[in-house]
Amino acid sequence: MIEDLETYDYETGVPIRTFNIIDTHVTAEGYEVHLNVDLDSGYELEDVKMKISFEDLAAYETEDVHEGVKYALGFFTK
Which of 1, 4, 31, 58 is 20 to 30 A (C-alpha) from 20? Predict the structure, then answer.
């Protein structure tokens, strides 16, 4: 049985080293993207589901899902 989990606020987390998009599905609001993420700590997150809306893509000034995911994960061109 799962006990009540407390919510913790953290100042920062582990940086993302790389990510790979596995699959993308169009939804009514935007896209559902499945990806694998390599963290700077050496851990990996597999088959992570990310939802990115058409509004998000417009805010990033792109229609490319891969570019939108890059921006959402904090990969910006210097």
Answer: 58
